[in-house]
Amino acid sequence: MGQPADHSTSGGLSMRKVVHFEIPADDLDRAKEFYGSIFGWEMSTMEMEGGDYTGIVTTPVDPATQMPTDPGGINGGLVQRVASMPAPVLTIDVEGIDATLADIEARGGSTVLPRTAIPGMGAFAYFTDPEGNVIGLWETTSS
Length: 143
What we know:
single chain; 2,3-Dihydroxybiphenyl 1,2-Dioxygenase, domain 1; eight-stranded mixed sheet; 2 helices; 8 strands; about 15% helix
């Protein structure tokens, strides 16, 4: 099974960062108004394969990489609620999605959505843990 790259000294096992969140909504316009008016988040909706996606900016980003410039800050998105993602999802950065999904499945989790590329940025996937929580994975594309 693939081991994630070491980014910490915690017992020799890498501590991977939460890098993104997604909030599902039944009414995307209502959710945009709600979160934008309360938290001041900037939102932009774009067409993507499978439907519209509303990106949420909660912290400044580097214009070239679109990565947050504030340490620990993450951005996210609003998505249409579906049966496979009824609750908010946290997304964790990994070295390689395929190896990580294999490790997840070997340890009792299951793949919800396999590796899906976003050209010029990276790829994402979703899995369920043994407790039934849906969690996302993110793999950054090398430039």
